[in-house]
Amino acid sequence: MIVATHGILANSGAGSVDTDAQAFITAAGITNTTQQNAINTLVTDLKSYNIWTKMKAIYPFVGGSASSHKWNLKDPRDLDAAFRLVFNGGWTHSSTGALPNGTTGYADTKLKPNNILTLNSNSLGYYSGSNITETNPDMCNMGSFNSVTQAFLVAKLNSRHASRTNGNELSYNSTSMTGFNTASRQSSTVWVINVNGVNVVTGTANGTLPTENVWLGNLNTFNFAYNGWVKNDFRFAYISDGLSNSESANFYTAVQAYQTSLGRNV
C-alpha cells in the first residue's frame, strides 16, 4: 500500500512509486491512499502497454475539487503550455469526477491540435458515468472546430456516438452513452470510433487539424462555444497520438481498472 511520508510517496510493499505518478500526486495535492494507488497503477499500466509516450494530455479527474481536477497527468505544471484545464462557467466537482451544468460549463485544455498533434495520427476521448438524454440533438463532449474539413471532436448524440476528424464524420448507434468513448485517426485515411475497448466503426479521414484549443463540455468553434452544451460527467479524458485497435483495447483495460479502484466504474 502506498502511504504519504513527508509529502513524498513511499511504498510499503514491493516495488517503488513511479516518478511521473508522484509528480502528479504532489501537484494535485492527492492525500487519499486509494487515490494515490489508483494514479500510480494507471501510470505504470499505461507504460507497460507502451501507451504513455503517445499521450499529450491525460485528465484523471481525481481528488474531488476543481484544484485537483485541472491537472494534466502527463505534465503536472500549472501552465497553459502544460495543458492543465481552465474551468469556465458552471461545474460541480466531486469524487466521481467533473460535471458541467449543461448551459455554461466548459474546460479549456489550451491544446491546439494543429500545433501539437500529427495530421495522420491523433486521438481523443472521455470516460463518463452519465447516460443523460440531452435536449439538444447536436451535442459535443470535447473538441475544436474551424470548418467541416478542419475538425477534431468526439460527441454523444443521445442515441449514437459520433466523431469528426478533418472533414468526415463517423457515428455508431447506441442507447448507452456511459463508459470509455474514444476516436482515433490511425493513418492518412483510417479513422475509428472505439467504445469500451471495442472498435465499433471504421471510416476514412481527410482535411487538416483545427487551430483552436480543445475544450471539454462543449465544442470550441473559433474560440466561441458551440450550440451543444453537454451535461454528462467526465471521469477521465485524454488527447494523444493515434492509437491502434489493440492499443485502444489495452487503454480501456487500464482506464477501467483505474475507475474500478476508485469505485466509479460503469
- The CATH architecture name reads Sandwich
Uncertain segments are 1-14
Percent range of helical residues: 10-25%
Number of helices: 5
Overall geometry comes to globular
The N- and C-terminal alpha carbons lie at a distance of 25 Å
Order of helices and strands: EEHHEHEEEEHEEEEEEEEEEEEH
The structure class reads: alpha+beta
Largest sheet: 9 strands, mixed
Descriptive report:
The protein has 266 residues and is α+β, with helices and mostly antiparallel strands. It has one domain (2-261): Jelly Rolls, CATH 2.60.120. The chain contains five helices and 19 strands. The strands form four sheets. Strands 4, 7, 9, 10, 11, 12, 16, 17 and 18 form a nine-stranded mixed β-sheet that branches. A six-stranded antiparallel β-sheet has the order 3-19-8-13-14-15, covered by helices on one side. It has a two-stranded antiparallel sheet with strand order 1-2. A hairpin with a 2-residue loop joins β5 and β6 (97-100). It is globular and about 45 Å long. The model is unreliable at 1-14 (pLDDT under 50).
Show the helix and strand layout.
Elements: E1 2-5, E2 8-11, H1 19-28, H2 33-48, E3 55-59, H3 66-69, E4 86-88, E5 91-94, E6 97-100, E7 106-108, H4 113-116, E8 122-128, E9 142-147, E10 150-156, E11 160-165, E12 168-173, E13 179-185, E14 190-195, E15 198-204, E16 215-216, E17 220-221, E18 224-225, E19 236-240, H5 245-261
Helix pairs in contact: 1-2, 2-5
